[in-house]
Amino acid sequence: MQADVLGPDYRVETISLPPDSEGSVVATLVTLEPDRPNGRAVLHVHGFADYFFHTEYARWWADRGYTFYAVDLRKYGRSLREHQTPNYVSDLHEYFAEIDLAWWRITQRDGHREVIVSGHSTGGLTVPLWAHERRPAELTAMVLNSPWFDMQGAAWLRSPAARVAIERLGTSRPMREIPRKVSPVYGHSLHVEHGGEWDYDLAWKPLESRPVYVGWLRAVRRGHAQLHAGLDVTCPILVLSSARSWFGEQTDETVTTHDIVLDVEQIRRWASSVGRHVTSIGIDGAMHDVVLSRPEIRAQAYDALERWLGAWVERSSVSPDAGDAHS
What we know:
Blueprint: E1 2-4, E2 7-20, E3 23-32, E4 40-45, H1 55-63, E5 67-72, H2 96-109, E6 114-120, H3 122-134, E7 139-145, H4 160-172, H5 185-190, H6 214-229, E8 237-242, H7 252-257, H8 264-270, E9 278-283, H9 295-313
Parallel strand pairs: 4-5, 4-6, 6-7, 7-8, 8-9
Antiparallel strand pairs: 1-2, 2-3, 3-5
Helix pairs in contact: 3-6, 4-6
């Protein structure tokens, strides 16, 4: 391992994966060690057109004794190579390979026997699918930050006809780009060069997102269908989101106080489909990436996370099956 772009406290390692039709493939694992380790760990998975740069989130866990790991999935961030189509996969299950290899490093190589898995947006969909299929013994809890649980927008986008069309086109012309217009307002609200609070690489997380292809959307919709049929993740699960969404004209105020990417009502609707023990909390005034919200808002989110962690995860007397909760 070597020092990461985030600074000397962060170590980074490349994970080699089997090549695909575009050539060689890698993922990247970033690690932050706590000053006073408690033997536990966290593994974080980012969302679409994103990568790990969330140093405050990592430090929050490390300050509580957790070794923090984050994976940049294939074709994202540190793992993106020039010959690749950024962010593209044809099946969300492809990501299981790098999550498996990261998990092996965390649990077998580094010896952690209690691990919390964390996911944001599309990562918040991928992580439950992985946990449902793999059922790792070391998984003690799951934290989902604005997980993408359904297709937002007009009802016809979720109709059977739309599903059939996406499935057929995604099979016959997977690399067909879906026309869409993405406002840079959200990116501007985050990045330090445009008045935001966060400094990150705009080549890895562009202000106007990334192109979306039909084959990728087909993969996401298949993931949604699996989630909607019901998963069986048995550990305690926390779902954090904004209290409200906004899909009208975007301004600095609406972007920083609402989820302008996903429909939070859908998040709340499908949260209980992840597993048998789910706590869902909407943070008033939060944005899409809850832990990048304004300081006073993300402080509320961290308070909620702390209370949940103490109540359901760090109390040794409570087992994952001790009771069901959904709020």
